[in-house]
From TrEMBL, chain A:
InterPro entries: Fe-S_cluster_assembly_SufBD, SUF_FeS_clus_asmbl_SufB, SUF_FeS_clus_asmbl_SufBD_core, SUF_FeS_clus_asmbl_SufBD_sf, SufBD_N. Belongs to the iron-sulfur cluster assembly SufBD family. Residues 153-214 form the SUF system FeS cluster assembly SufBD N-terminal domain. This is Fe-S cluster assembly protein SufB. It comes from the Bacteria. Residues 222-464 form the SUF system FeS cluster assembly SufBD core domain.
TrEMBL record, chain B:
This is Fe-S cluster assembly protein SufD. InterPro entries: Fe-S_cluster_assembly_SufBD, SUF_FeS_clus_asmbl_SufBD_core, SUF_FeS_clus_asmbl_SufBD_sf, SUF_FeS_clus_asmbl_SufD. Residues 147-374 form the SUF system FeS cluster assembly SufBD core domain. SUPFAM superfamilies: Stabilizer of iron transporter SufD. It holds the Pfam family SUFBD_core. It comes from the Bacteria.
Amino acid sequence: MPAVSETREAVEKLARSNYEWGFETNVEMDLAPKGLNEDIVRLISARKKEPQWMLDWRLKAFRAWQDMSEPDWAKIRHPPIDYQDAHYFAQPKKKSGPKSLDEVDPELLRTYEKLGIPLHEQEMLVGVEGAGQKTPVAVDAVFDSVSVATTFRKTLAEAGVIFCPISEAIIEHPELVKKYLGTVVPVADNFFSALNSAVFTDGSFVYVPKGVRCPMELSTYFRINARNTGQFERTLIIAEDQATVSYLEGCTAPQRDENQLHAAVVELVAMEDAFIKYSTVQNWYPGDENGKGGIYNFVTKRGICKGDRARISWTQVETGSAITWKYPSCILAGKGSVGEFYSVAVTNGHQQADTGTKMIHLAPDTRSTIVAKTISAGQSDSTYRGLVRMQPKARNGRNFTQCDSLLIGDQCGAHTVPYIESRNMSVRIEHEATTSKISEDQLFYCRSRGFSEEEAVGLIVNGFCREVLKELPMEFAVEAQKLLQISLEGSVG
Amino acid sequence: MSENSAAAWQALTGRAGERAALLGAGGLPTRRVEAWHYTPLQSLNGIAWQEAPALDAATVKRRVEGLNLPEHDGLLVFANGRFCKELSHLPDCMDVQEYGDGSAVQPLLAGRFSAGLNAALRQPGARLHVPAGTDAGLIVMVSLTEGDGVSTHLHHSVTLDEGAQLTLLDVQLGTGQYLTNPQVDVHCADKAHLSHITQQAESHEAARLAIVGARVGERGNYDSFTLNQGGVLARQEVVTQLSGPFSNTNVNAIQLVDGARLNDLSSMIHHASPDCTSRQTVRSVLSENGQGVFQGKILVDRIAQKTDGYQMNQALLLSEKAQMNSKPELEIYADDVKCSHGATVGALDEDQLFYLRSRGVQEEQARDMLVQAFLLETVELVEHESLRDYLLKALPGHV
């Protein structure tokens, strides 16, 4: 079959496709010495001018972490990570505070330009052509471990929304941070979350007060730049009763031949009738064609629907990283609350992804939907791992899960590991999973209508992922589609 | 092996502690062992299992006669781990081979706790052999266990030569708080066809760790059906390897769990050759405080192109306290495959109940009808007609 052999050939070619964001920015960096110990934790806390309670919290996490061991249940392989061989604090040197963009290193701004992130406020109106209404997006840019710029803060403040680096929130809104930090992902929840709790340096903080619909999309761009640094950002989003917020997260890193660690923690709290939509387009550097380098992406993301009828929706497009270990989860504690998880994970080259979700139904009438699309090409391995648990009190709980895998080439693997636990008779759980390759019929159909092989595969893959992509905010959907194309570039046709 | 688990292991094996080394870092699997997460064995800790004493022949005879077995071509009876020759007979075309030393774990089952335990305490079971091109008809194997604190570890092997055929009904029953740990090694040569029906009707106080390892040659077929309805803690583990092209396996099951019992069906279907098919339908009905477990893995090797695998697992919860844990798993390394699995968990469909009620059927009767319909579809997957009827009679309410 020509299509198949061509596809395979193309898979081999893939490694030659370029990682578009693989540039390094020459910004003077302020680095903490390599290694991890209590002094480093104290140093980070001191550099962030944190209050004592925050330092105590970090130290507690650090001590817990020392007693923990790396989880080994995921279907990933990597050489042992030397946690002492990295800088746990890297900060672009600044002449003064990060509050004004003019004072930010111009090199840095050029970085964001290269990324296509319109940081300047006048460029912030990212109009979608033909959409008529222009949609503003507020951006918090995190460069290595530090938040360098947050835009649109004034407009947001008028609406009562707090959107700032978490380091700032710790100082300016300690009551909120104290109340919620670590409540969804406890410090000792797992190895990587404990590590993050000890050494996180920045991240975003969002607070949407009661009844407020956040007037614009909030967005954070994370970039790892410095060599031998890990990125440990911490995000905390709180939506009070009837509040609504949509948050976007994008990630890139330069091309390097050593592995870099990224261990983030994201916590979402949705109160009564609140809605949090969290979208991620993850495009960390995946490593070169021999599997050298790339980001180890070990992320803990969890949201709690605390109030009745609260809703949390996770959407992720995972195309980057050498290893992805990530399970955005929802704890449905409020009556009638809703959890959603929409995911596209693309692996190529030597990438490995073990990703999925957990839906923990605690309260009656809770509903959850899981749609996971996995595409494996090259010599990659991709696993969907998910848990749906209906506790005895989750009367009338509903879950629908659909996991589809697409294999491109015969050197890759696709795996599905769902756990379904039901402790109550009034629930309805449905789970479907399929694994297949791109059908010859579909390819032939497109080819016979004049599409090239690559275009045809692009069309089919985009169709395969449509249910997920349509969940993304418009600007991200466009970006995600492009990313899918780039990730699979050369793997087909 | 940590000291604790070694002690637990000693307690379990007692009379054959020295063979515990076979299990490497053994000990009783806890919840932390992935394969036993939903079926932890701690409750078996600290019981000094004894060898089961011989049973009185007349009692055994009475119990076997009470089974109302379907018409069969051969019968093998085991009581408390011992072969009852006087109650057994086989057709002329078959031979029972001598039991060898055989304390090794067959490679297919390496690393599996139930197989390791069987290897350590193995008792000679049936050695069935069907010569090439022969249809041996229906053979019934009955294993009866009686007593408290006793354990049996029978090891059977069933070998079908090229083109041979056999239907094997494997009936297990007993009374008391015992442990059974039977293992069946199956080898279907090219074009051989084994239909293996296991009726697990152990005592409701018994523990059971049963395991089957089947290798299937080119165009061969291993068709397995398990009716899991006994035991307080009972796992039926089925491992099949499709080692020749165009072979097929079915691993179907029904689990009926009530009381405070736990029944577990764990399976591994390994597609090790191209062009093979596998089908799996597992249906569980959970009532009272019953717990059901289903773990099913389909593994597709890189060379196993054109694999067609399908797995369906459905559970019906009939009471507030019933529980179901399922883990249907796909591990796929070949790209030209068609594999899917589905799982559902829920209560009886209110619309269907309403339909029956609106036609004058009493509520209770309507519920029974729906449960029976749910089970019937799975029993119908058994090809052998008289066996199908036999199994239907074993279901609640005689479908």
